[in-house]
Every structure is written in structure tokens, then in C-alpha cells.
Design goal:
Largest sheet: 5 strands, parallel
CATH topology of the largest domain: Rossmann fold
Protein name: Glycosyl transferase family 90
Structural class: alpha/beta
CATH superfamily of the largest domain: Glycogen Phosphorylase B
Strand order of the largest sheet: 8-7-9-10-12
Organism: Rhodanobacter aciditrophus
Number of strands: 12
Domain Glycosyl transferase CAP10: 103-306
Helix content: 25-40%
Number of helices: 11
InterPro entries: CAP10, O-Glucosyltr/Glycosyltrsf_90
Number of domains: 2
CATH architecture of the largest domain: 3-Layer(aba) Sandwich
CATH class of the largest domain: Alpha Beta
GO molecular function, one term: transferase activity
Length: 315
Amino acid sequence: MAKKDLAYFKKRFARIAYYVRETFALKKPVAKAESLLKHIEVTPELKQRVDYCCKIKTPFTVSKQATRNQDFAKTKSFVYFADLKRIVRHFPKNFYFDYIFGDVIDVPETPSFVKSRPIVENNDNAVLLKLNAIRHYQFFEDSQAFSEKRPQAVWRGMVYHQHRRDFVDMYHDKPFADVGHNDEKRADEPSYKGFMSVAEQLTFRYIVSVEGKDVATNLKWAMASNSLVMMRKPRFETWFMEGRLEPGVHYVELKDDFSDLEEKVQFYNLPENQDKALQIIANAHAYVAQFKDSDQELLVSLLVAQKYFDMQAAR
């Protein structure tokens, strides 16, 4: 069986298992948010995170199309539904909320629960929750040390967006990088390299993260690895709070046109600069750690939703 086929079946099986597990889990009775949060000490760090995900500062009114909590039913996108339902079911049935599923690249007119939002000044109406978590929050074991990895940059993905197309056209044939797309419909193109598993990508020192329509799916597992993440300054953010990532601290920043990739690879390949790479990797690990505590993730999610509901004006 081809590696791509095996990966597909594993992913498919995981999706089915997730669907079955969540379907039964969502039918179980749960404690009310009020009781869960009653004795919780909200530390300054937690409050900062809650206020970052929910930036609403003034009372608001939900839209005429808002959903009443007791009427919130399964949609076509089950993973989004399950992730949101897991949070709102802790709140009163008569509460209302707006939500937008999918890759959100604009700020909603009315405060709404979303997976993603643009990193702009006035994005308060986009309230971040951990949606589509099964796709975006997968972490993988990486036991290979940075110094033992191949001293090249790697990237695989689809090229539906022009900036990705430009990126692979620029680097698909360069010796310092293994960059290419895996769109089989374009297999005749020189930039087509085919499927590469995460395990294979983790054998490279540098993992390039390139946003798609909104965020880059590989960013979370790449930052949790022993490889060094290289990317341009993010334009969108999710529950991962990409807007809080600092270049030179959590990742290596590339120019907007990716033209300095070779320069950055050569810099961190120098023996005298590898300590700098290891420090950035350590910082990335520390940043990722806050998203691995399931109890804390639920707490922050409930606090974000509670703030959203508390800021609503009476209907």
C-alpha cells in the first residue's frame, strides 16, 4: 500500500472514531459553566488569554439570525459543530449566539464564535474558540535532535493560493530545500513532489509554514517538534493566537515573498548559530505547552464563552 493511501486510511479511521466518540459524548449530561467556574482562580495569564480570544469591550446585541442554545443542532460540518457544542452546552438553553464555521478571513458584523480571524486592529467581533481541533491540534512524537536532522528546509501542501504557488515555483528545484506541492491533478508540473508524511518532514531541520486561505495547518505540530519553524509574519490567527508569536523568539521570520529562505537556512546551519536555533525551538515548545493541557483548554474555552454571553445586551 502506498504511503499516501496508508495515511489516508489512518486519517479516515481517526475521523470516523472521532465522529462516533463525540456523538455519544455530546449526549451525556454535563455540569453547568457556573458551577465549573465558581471556584476557579483566574490567573493574570489566563485572563490575558481569555481577553485576547474575546476582545469584546462593550455590550452588544446578537443578530436576528442568532441561534438559541437549545436549538443548536448538527450541521454539515460535524467537527465544527461538535467543538462548539462541547462548550455552549454548559450554558443555559435560552442563551443566544452567532457563529461562523469554516475559514473566516473577514471580521463578522456581529460578535460571533469563529475558528479564525484576520490579525488586524479592529477584530473584536471575531471571538476565537478551538474549532476544527482534530485537524489543527495534532501533535507528533519527535525524538530526533535538531543537529541530527537533514540541514534543509521542507514544505508540502496544496497550491490553491497564489502565494503558495509562487513559493513552490521559487524553491522546488533548490538543493537547500525539499519544497513542492502534492496536487495530483498537477502531477505533470516540475514543482509536484507528491505526498510526504509528517514523520518524513520531521527529519528536516527547517519546516516552512505557509498560510493557506487562513492559517497554516502544519504550524502547531511544527512548533512542537525539534525542527525550526520558518514563516512570514502571520496574517490570520486562531485559538493558537498566532498574532502573539514573536519572530526571533518562537519562529524565524521570512520576507513576505519568501525570498530570504536560503539565507536563513545557511545562517542557522552555521555551527555557531545552532544555539540560537535551539533557543527558538525551546521557546516554541513552551508556547505550545499551554494548548496541551485539556483541563485548562476547557477552562479557557468556558471563560471565553462566558465573557461573550456576559457582554450581550438584553434581547
